[in-house]
Specification:
The complex is a heterodimer of chains A (170) and B (345).
Chain A (H helix, E strand, L loop, with lengths): L9 H19 L4 E2 L2 E2 L5 H12 L4 H17 L5 H15 L1 H4 L4 H27 L5 H12 L2 H11 L8
Helix pairs in contact in A: 1-2, 1-3, 2-3, 2-4, 2-8, 3-4, 4-6, 6-7
Chain B lengths: L2 H33 L12 H35 L1 H36 L9 E9 L7 E4 L12 E3 L4 E9 L2 E6 L6 E6 L5 E5 L7 E3 L12 E4 L11 E7 L5 E5 L8 E5 L4 H4 L2 H5 L57
Antiparallel strand pairs in B: 1-2, 1-12, 2-5, 3-4, 3-12, 4-5, 6-7, 6-9, 7-8, 9-10, 10-11
The chains are: A mainly alpha (170), B alpha+beta (345).
Chain lengths: 170, 345
């Protein structure tokens, strides 16, 4: 039996990218300033969550997205569950549009990634407004959004690597 | 039936189970949001899960931030080597200015001490403090907090103010063994009572996730000008009065904002002020031990059978002198039968 027909091992396409995203998030949480400016704070797990939705539907992927979101909330000290819900909403929308987006070009997928990332940011903003009764700075939200959509090549690499790895979901 | 058709049937259940898993995960996330009480900033609301995760994250952050700190020190050394002459000139000019300020400060201190002696003013007690190193830093628009590597064992408590060498950074919102979490002034949930040094006008410094928090609820006309120094007001007893916060500037949105003094340099080491507000300093137990006030004239009716007292005449009650405590009655009043309780419907 060929390797692709055996299905995808979760550690290859789920757990390894998840650990990489969490490691990078932790690395960027160090108090480093370059020329007086702090590092940006992109949402690294967003790239993995989008790629998982495009690659194939999975039972484990939402659980991984939930864990990554909770990790972000705990590390950054925000409302517990805010990023978990925001990324799950983005993951769900990306999964819904999977049949339309599978096999599309790099740029089209990038636009789709930018769209679902914007949805995640809006969800996070709504949760923050409900919890704290205050509106986050739109410039800060914009910078974080830009820093996140720049990560799309990492997501695309994951999609390229595993999109055809399971013949049942071609 | 072809193999492709069989494989096609596999898609449907997996898609549905994936959808169910997604819904379950979303419900779990909503449950976390509802159960989280971060916005209350109470010590007991911080929760065991956050305390435990902070304890795990702090050593990891410390390991990761160590090479970063070394790199920063190295870069500073290189910059110092190449810009030594320029730095020397700048420091000489600053020293010249500071000498003038030193003379002014000595004169003001002398005047201050004389005024305090004349007025018999009770000044605030000195505030003990502990030094800490920042090990993680979050800078996003939704949460601005940092982990410091000292905790409960050093006497740190939730609410303690945190300062860098330049000014106020924030305050402690969670503390456990060996680590504490600092909520920065820029966090979306941070509200800090401040005052304008020049006019003494009060305002609330409101973080919005950006680098320059807003000055809200400003009262008075022309209460603030560009470049005014902003200090903590001490209102509410949360923070001590007079800690430097920053400088007022007009934002691009037309609102008054503050360029934080702590942003002048990287915040890698901080001082946590073990500050106790007035309500904590005052001995509440001693206040509670105060003698109760003596009974008034109306207390004479205590122990007298109902119906035997003369009702007080209408009109203003005459002032009652402090009466001696009533002596207990020689014969106790007959026990009053409890009123019958109406039966529940």
């Amino acid at each position: 039996m060929s390797r692709s027909a055996q299905g995808l091992a979760p550690w290859r396409w789920l757990f390894t990218p998840m650990l990489q995203a969490l490691g990078l998030t932790l690395l960027f949480a160090t108090p480093l300033r370059v020329f007086g400016l702090g590092l940006p704070e992109p949402i690294f797990p967003m790239a993995a969550a989008f790629a998982w939705a495009v690659i194939r539907p999975s039972v484990l992927a939402p659980a991984c997205v939930l864990v990554m979101g909770l990790f972000l909330d705990i590390l950054w000290g925000g409302t517990l569950g805010m990023w978990a819900l925001s990324m799950l909403v983005a993951y769900g929308v990306a999964l819904t549009g999977r049949s339309m987006m599978a096999g599309q070009s790099f740029l089209i997928l990038w636009a789709w990634y930018a769209g679902v990332t914007a949805l995640a940011m809006v969800t996070a903003e709504l949760v923050a407004m409900l919890e704290v009764q205050a509106t986050p700075n739109p410039i800060g939200v914009g910078w974080q959004y830009l820093a996140t959509i720049v990560l799309y090549p990492f997501s695309y690499r994951l999609i390229e690597r595993f999109e055809d790895a399971d013949v049942r979901f071609r | 039936m072809s193999l492709r058709d069989n494989l096609g049937e596999l898609k449907v259940p997996l898609t549905w189970t994936a959808a169910v898993a997604l819904v379950v995960a979303a419900v779990a996330a909503i449950a976390f949001i509802v159960s989280d009480r971060r916005e209350t900033f109470q010590a007991e609301a911080y929760g065991a899960s956050r305390s435990l995760s902070d304890q795990v994250l702090a050593p990891v952050g410390e390991v990761l931030s160590t090479p970063v700190r070394w790199a920063g020190v190295g870069a500073d050394n290189v910059r110092g080597y190449f810009f030594a002459a320029h730095e020397n000139r700048r420091l000489k000019a600053e020293l010249k200015e500071m000498r003038q300020w030193r003379d002014v400060a000595i004169a003001l201190r002398d005047t201050n001490e004389r005024y305090r002696t004349i007025l018999g003013l009770k000044t605030d007690p000195p505030i003990p403090m502990v030094a800490a190193r920042i090990v993680t830093d979050s800078r996003g628009p939704f949460a601005n907090s940092r982990l410091a590597n000292v905790g409960r064992e050093k006497g740190v408590k939730a609410g303690n103010p945190v300062m860098s060498e330049n000014g106020l950074v924030g305050r402690i919102i969670g503390v456990t063994d060996g680590v504490s979490r600092v909520l920065l002034l820029t966090d979306i949930a941070a509200r800090t009572p401040v005052m304008i040094d020049r006019t003494n006008a009060r305002a609330i410094l409101t973080g919005d996730g950006g680098p320059n928090p807003r000055l809200d609820y400003m009262r008075g006309k022309d209460a603030v000008r560009q470049g005014d120094r902003v200090l903590t007001s001490g209102d509410g007893g949360v923070l001590p009065r007079g800690l430097p916060v920053g400088v007022a500037v007009k934002g691009l949105d037309g609102r008054w904002r503050v360029v934080l003094a702590s942003d002048a340099a990287p915040v890698d080491y901080v001082r946590i002020l073990l500050f106790k507000d007035f309500t904590q300093v005052v001995n509440a137990a001693e206040l509670d031990r105060m003698e109760p006030p003596p009974p008034t004239g109306g207390a004479l009716t205590v122990g007298v059978a109902p119906g035997t007292t003369t009702p007080a005449p209408p009109g203003p009650r005459p002032p009652v002198a402090i009466a001696p405590r009533p002596q207990p009655a020689a014969t106790p009043p007959p026990p009053v039968a409890p009123a019958p309780t109406p039966a529940r419907p």
